[in-house]
Amino acid sequence: MHPTVLQAPSSKLQAQDHLPHPTPHRMVTPMRHYSLLDRLLMEVDQSLRTVYGRPPVTARANPSDAIEEAELSDPERELAGRLMRINHAGEVSAQGLYQGQALTAKREDIRDQMQRSAMEENDHLAWCEQRIAELGTHKSQLSPFWYWGSFSLGAIAGAIGDKWSLGFVTETEHQVVRHLEDHLQRLPEHDDKSRAVLEQMKEDEAHHAHVALEAGGAELPTPIKKLLMPLLSKVMTKTTYWI
Ligand SMILES: [Fe+2]
Ligand SMILES: [Fe+2]
What we know:
Elements (H helix, E strand, L loop, with lengths): L9 H7 L19 H17 L21 H31 L3 H27 L8 H18 L1 H25 L5 H23 L7 H21 L1
The site of one fe (ii) ion has 6 residues, from α3, α4 and α7.
């Protein structure tokens, strides 16, 4: 992983972070040359932090914090919990995707951009995790699988070329926006806390798509956009609904 990752926003994060987390180890060693083993261990650490720990977030407040909890019936609470579990798994995947791309991206500015977007995805991860706990359910038991599956896809896309990697981000984020619109419709009517989280996520994902497109993202071949990506997404959402 490039040694500059996570350096720029780190001081702000440590001062204002709304969730406790260990100090990210990759912030502290500027300009060091990492061996392949170093990088491998850092990737494993990052995956564990994403799936089981408290990855570094930005200074933004959780958009649901200011909203009062509504009275939800048991079936409504269960549905909201399942939907937020899916969204949490999506954020785990997003984190894997960006980390994989950052590992193999060729241009330094793109690596940095991937890391900035990854930080915002960690906000989403933390917000979804908090909401899952409030709704009394659990994160997907397949989270490590979602992380490493997406990491592999991201690393492959980055290795093929930056314009394809950016194009993959653009299309992924567009599809995530459509997915979030669907979930916003399906959430229980009074679950304004979950809705606030998803609304902010939708805004951020649209921004990530825009940034990747502006940076030179190429349009992906139709079979990848229309068949492969929706299929992978469907496998994840259907599975995560239950486990
Ligand atoms: Fe996200
Ligand atoms: Fe995103």
